[in-house]
Specification:
This protein has 373 residues and is of the alpha/beta class. The protein has helices at 18-32, 69-75, 77-87, 97-110, 132-148, 157-166, 184-190, 216-225, 242-251, 268-273, 288-295, 307-315, 326-338, 343-351, 355-370; strands at residues 7-11, 37-41, 57-60, 91-94, 116-120, 151-154, 174-176, 203-207, 232-236, 258-262, 276-279, 299-302. The model has no long low-confidence stretch (mean pLDDT 94).
Amino acid sequence: MNNSEPVVHFLYEPGNGGLDRVAILLANGMAKRGISTELWLTKADGPVAHLIASNVKIRIVPTPRIGGRGVQLFLQIPAVAGMMRKHRPRAIFSAGNQTNLSLVIARKLAADIPTKIIQKITNPVLRPGFNHWVKVYRTWRFGLTARLGDMSLTLSAADAEKYAQTYPRAADKFHAVPNPYVHADMLASGEHRIARAPGLAPRLLAVGRIAPQKGYMTLIAALAHIADRPWSMTILGDGPLLDEAKRFTKKLGLADRIEFRGFVDDVTPYFSQSDILVLSSRWEGFPAVPIEAMATGCAVVATDCSAGLTQLLNQIGQHTVPVHDPEALAKAISNEIDSPQPIAPLRACATAYSIENSVEDHLKLLPQVCGTS
């Protein structure tokens, strides 16, 4: 690859979401390998802005300060097209669902440029609660986006297969690639972990935004079902349902056993100090948190919220439980308390998602999509 032609990672802002961190880590990893790498941002400030390496060039996309993120991404399309014409990047990696469509439209406006658009589907196209017409619209929109782009990355083989079947006209554009979730400190922290003895009171952990998607009310209800067992739970995250979750916890008599710690920038120490991560989500694309926990040797109990995660856990003999089922989740937690998962398979699974492996896998796709070596 010609390293003088920049590779761009397009991100709205360095916020506190998983896709924001992933885009920055990928940019850093490519720059570390001597590739001219840029981050195109609408906003430069944010919780993970400090992660951006000094050798990654930042360009701010001129954007009218009107409306929310969706409106701004639409309004900035002409400016993005102008930046494509001026800087002529070899390829642009879209960080996630929201920027996929705006980038392919901008490329159309730019006209006659060689830039390739590599999209990433980070959240399911269809989610629980969508009505018929929303499903119809989103199915059509994502199909159009895939056809207009040059490659669509999914976070698991299960998702790549599903979308290839859903969109046969763009079937050859879907490729599974691991995201860079696991850093060296996570793997190092698991090297000396000692397996918890069966029946010993576990330290439970939940990580994620306290919002309807994450199923925290199901989690709290599940814990109430095993209130007669010894355990403690720490919840890391902020969100619109935080106060409601606290009230529900108090109502069920669990306020002295569940601790809400708010948003935490570095969760690695919590993984290292916990025995079981519980993921109670209603839906996910391919969640980072379970992979990060596994890297440290922390066991995982999860709902069937992600086909990719379910597939991965099945490979090591673990099974997910139905979403929105407190009784099933409580039983799974109890089973893990009584029969702890072996640590070695957990860490082996997570290694594929190391920053180094992920950067390598993303770079392998560039010659394929750009048509040269």
